[in-house]
Amino acid sequence: MSGLSALTLLSFQGKVAKALINSPLYKPISQRAKDTMKETAESAGIDWEGEKVRVRGLRRDWEEAVLAETKSRSTSPSLYYYPDYYNKPFHTYTLGNLEFDAAFEQRLASAAVGVRNYPQYGAGGEEYFRSTYFDAIDRVGDYESSAVNLAVDFGCGTGMSTEDLKRAFPAAEVVGVDLSPHMVVVGRELVSEEVTLRNMPMESTDFEDESVDVVSIQLVFHELTLEASRKVLKEARRILKPEGRLCVMEMDGKSPGFKKLRANPFLFSIIGSTEPHLEEYFDQVDAGFSDLIEEAGFANLTFETATSRHFCAVASGKLGGLKEYEVRDNRDFEMMGRLDQHMKTMSKSTSDPSPITTFKLTKRIPSPPSTVLKACLDGWRVNNFNLPLLPPMITNAGDDSGVGFEILRLPPGLRERITEVKCDGGDLSVVYEVVNPGWWAAFPVSFHQGRMLMTDDGQGRTDFAWEVDYIPLPFAEMYVELMTQVIVQKAFQSVVAASTPASDSDI
Ligand SMILES: C[S@@+](CC[C@H](N)C(=O)[O-])C[C@H]1O[C@@H](n2cnc3c(N)ncnc32)[C@H](O)[C@@H]1O
Asked: In this entry, which stretches build a coiled coil (predicted)?
């Protein structure tokens, strides 16, 4: 494909992705994303609801605490003012970081991501993930941990990263700062007395010039615009001693995992819909991250791989005089990727020997199998299962039974084909598959097959089952699970509704 046509396709897909985000599908997808996160945490024994209730119960006067915190803020932005980029629905919370639910659930959500990414560590996945950051800082290695007197955690949330910082620098005074009063007041109930959390913007803190030994920024830049990142790095340089260290951990757009995600704007926009600035972060901040560090006045920067998808960056020194800016890049994603793959294989072989994920929905329908079959075939051939998606192109009409019927969804170019329609006594079935799965078809699986099974219960009713088998590509497990569950569920409901007599309808 020529550069121009590839670009045209990218922007077209990007627009369609945005339309999808604004479509009725978005709500069930984001709700499903939240439910999946909860289920993932619970599968590792984390009691999501119980813990949320416990945290909420730690005080009664949350609203008053937030108000008092906001009023006492000594630095700009002043009372009730938040920058535009901050007033966004991060992580599908309507008020983003300025919401109690976001703060009550912050640690739970992080734990769920840890379980998902490092299943072999179960509920300890998050702890392992966080340890990779400090291991990477250690590999850079050119600092004396005991010489650190004051360490500041920028964008501390409810203080998990602040406590990690305290563990890394036990002799230091450790302070977390966050712009969300909700995060700070909730965090104060959760952290030990050894750390302090303060409500202020990273862009303008009240630390004195050259007073801080370490500024650590974990998983925050992807929530910022380029403009905000510039200001934050400048502020870090202002408060750091000349020999102080800036340490950053973030998603690495240059890692193979995120490169694949970014190569598909359709998929990327959907994933990025819970992170309003993710696209800008990847496009601008990561691409020129070392330039931003130089622009802020640091004299040198070292990149290390933290995980196969996250970098650790350590910057220090002050530019000036005849000093030249120096960048060392020690990233080795291949090595880390092998490690992660190894861990994945381990977890598969111990807990789940099959790479295939199966999703199944069932319902008894008060109509004979032939009626349900007609509704299934009409879904393919006539009404697109009433999905709020663009009508697909029919590329093959198939034979009278429906076998060979094929559609093309444009964009993203996904082809679906009916491969079998069977009558076995009174029981009927339809088998279909995705012919061209993969990253470019925005359906990152290596295999996808669905079966619609209609079993006669002998009393004029049908036990209807819709089963889907799929093998997600690496790094896309959650997305594939979400899309499959939401879309198949909608299509399933459409078939059930179409084949249920109006008088019996209960869905
Ligand atoms: C994804 S959380 C990361 C929290 C924590 N560093 C961790 O690793 O668990 C990002 C945090 O950055 C905070 N944040 C974003 N912009 C900020 C700003 N301009 N000043 C201070 N905090 C900010 C948000 O309120 C949020 O709590």
From this structure: none
